Amino acid sequence: MPSSSNRRVGVSRRRRGVVVVGGGIVGLATAYRLLEADPDRPVTVLERESRVGTHQSSRNSGVLHAGLYYPPGSRKARWAVAGKRALEAFCDQHGVPVVRSGKVVVAVDPSELEGLRRLAERARTNGVEVVELDADQVAEHEPHVSAIAGLWSPGTAVTDFGRVCEALAAVVQARGGRVLTGVVMHHLDDRGEVVRIATSEDDLEADAVVVCAGAQADRIARASGVDVPERIVPFRGSWLRLRPDRAHLVRGNIYPVPVGGGLPFLGVHLTRRVDGEVWIGPNAVLAGARDAARPWQVDPRDLAATLGFAGTWRLGGRHLDVAAGEVWRDAVLRATLRRVQAYVPRIGIDDVRRGPFGVRAQLVSADGALVDDFEVRGTGRIVHLLNAPSPAATASLSIGAALADEVATRTG
Ligand SMILES: Cc1cc2nc3c(=O)[nH]c(=O)nc-3n(C[C@H](O)[C@H](O)[C@H](O)COP(=O)(O)OP(=O)(O)OC[C@H]3O[C@@H](n4cnc5c(N)ncnc54)[C@H](O)[C@@H]3O)c2cc1C
Fold first, then answer.
1. pLDDT tens track for 65-108
2. E-assigned strands of 216-266?
3. Between 20 and 30 A from 118 (CA), which of 100, 133, 202, 353?
4. Ligand 1 atom at minimum distance from 212 CA
5. Domain range list for the chain
6. Contact yes or no for 19/160 (Cβ under 8 A)
7. How far is the CA of 289 from the centre of ligand 1 (A)?
């Protein structure tokens, strides 16, 4: 895993360069884009963990989203489409595996047909290729699916975003950037021409700072003077693993028609990953810790922040039925399975095992709405990426390009 052996983190005063806080996929993609835009400007990434990409960036479904779902014109729609293209090219160039397996979104009930039709319309508005399928055509793509209709997305692919992080870090370092792992950013002080950065190692100075801190984004922004009435609320997503000798039941990606109702989660789906393993999930339940290493881990400060925030309760009140269903299915494996059996009936209880989990960093507004789009805010020479939920891994190189542009604007 790339990390700098140079623990002296001071940056030349002549040209201080840009510091990126957070060595997840978006922070690393931002460093990559900053170096692309100006190869002579020093770039330093600070990652508090001992490796890059250990949080959301390596605990996800691994799907390169084609861009079907997102509101036309939104950052998600524009940056997922362009970002996926750029990331696939990056992976091909740097030996990161991409499997172009496509995906079917399946309707199992006539009540879902309207949702499927709307999804096709939205995909086309976003410039994403989709093909309507009847039941027989669904079976041609996924022989073990039982559905009345479907939508085929040939552009959906899978990769290993953890490996993407490693490759990005290696390229950043090869181009003269520094990726310092095990360094915690404690405090940012914008003094006009220069930003002072207090870290767990030496202090730094930079011309500009970009913060891509995932689950800590709102706290860091608030501490550096940005008005953030919203709060990051952590949602755990857990997967089931299909037994390897049953993996043939799934060829690519199989998704239900999304439920809608203002929730961005895509429903329990099946994903054949780059290593051939099939994961089922993820669900979405409140997490007790923003950076949880175990599914039931509780960080008292995080839990107090979540439960002490009116937006959490308003969100729960608005989607009580969905929230209760998610908690129920989280506890009762058979309940999750029933969801999946609705469209892949041959998967039985003995075919699945509990699998890994990831924690989504989701910005929630005080009125209880999930902030849907990617959100960038800043003051002076500090830029904060406040909301980067899925498909931010797919879109990382586009987000990084936008953040690099923002730095150029702010530093003249
Ligand atoms: C369950 C789940 C499934 C998902 N599936 C998909 C998918 O299939 N496709 C897709 O495109 N996206 C998916 N996503 C979303 C995607 O993983 C995230 O949007 C993306 O990884 C966000 O990257 P990031 O760099 O912003 O955050 P992170 O990966 O969380 O990185 C933030 C980094 O900042 C560091 N940091 C924080 N504070 C400090 C500090 N003070 N000093 C130094 N470092 C600090 C952290 O240690 C961390 O490494 C999924 C996410 C989850 C949780």
1. 999 999 999 999 999 999 999 999 999 999 999 999 999 999 99
2. 231-242, 253-256
3. 100
4. 26
5. 18-57+162-229+373-411, 231-243+281-370
6. no
7. 14
